Amino acid sequence: MRGRYVFPFEFALLVIAFYLVPGSVFATEDEAFTESVVIFNTICAKCHEAQCSGRLSFDDSFKASVNHIVRYYGEASEKKWLQRELFVILNHMKEQCAYYPMPARIPPQMVWSGEMLEKMATLVERNYFIPIGPFTPGRYQLELKLAKDAKVTAHLVSETFEMVVEDCYLSSDRQIVIPFSIEEAGNYYVRVYPREPVQITRLAITTLAQSNVAPEEEQ
Predict the structure, then answer these.
(1) What is the pLDDT of residues 105-155, one digit of tens each?
(2) How far is CA 31 from the centre of its chain?
(3) Angle at 103 between CA 118 and CA 86, to 5 degrees
């Protein structure tokens, strides 16, 4: 997914925010925002994906949203910069009915290394939110390799918030294999919640040949 183009006026607002919001890190806008996007999409989005109509809008005031943010994500209680970024991401989801754009390179062979995945994980919980790019209808297989055997909940979700995969898995020999089918073309995301913090050291997606599909699945 592409990062946003920053227009001169928007750039000026970012410069002002740099001085007004303690703890903000604007080395690059994309890198600074990635952590907040991952936090929102693994902790907050599960509720707000169904609320993009503005039914619970906080557009009137950033201050009005702070209590809501802190109540559901206590780690933000002392981080004004994080509260502000989560507020921006929340309003984006409500207004656009879409995930906030996240700068993430899709590897040509559809294999993500542990180093790449580190940028898409929360530091404390080790939750992951991974853009895996556009898919066409077909049969695929998702493989996760973990640093140790663990039980995880895995989601595969479309850009329109439709769940393709939503299940709990126990790894075997530190590996989890999840076959899945795509019916609607579009961008998709992998979301992973480990029962206890564990690193994903590799993620790979392969296309399954039609011959690998069971007869009942072809109907």
Answers:
(1) 899 899 999 999 999 998 888 999 999 999 999 999 999 999 999 999 999
(2) 14
(3) 80
Does the pLDDT of residue 88 top 50, yes or no? yes
User: Which sequence spans correspond to the domains of the chain?
Assistant: 8-96, 111-218
Q: What is the pLDDT of residues 43-52, one digit of tens each?
A: 776 665 555 6
Other Cβ atoms within 10 Å of 176 Cβ, number = 21
* Contact assessment for residue 141 and residue 181, using Cβ atoms and an 8 Å cutoff: no
The full DSSP string for 14-58 is HHHHHHHSTT---SSHHHHHHHHHHHIIIIIHHHHTT-TTSTT--
200 CB neighbour count, 10 Å cutoff = 25
CATH of 111-218, one of 3.40.50.300, 2.60.120.260, 2.30.42.10, 3.30.70.260: 2.60.120.260
Reported pTM: 0.73
Neighbours of 118 (CB within 10 A): 13
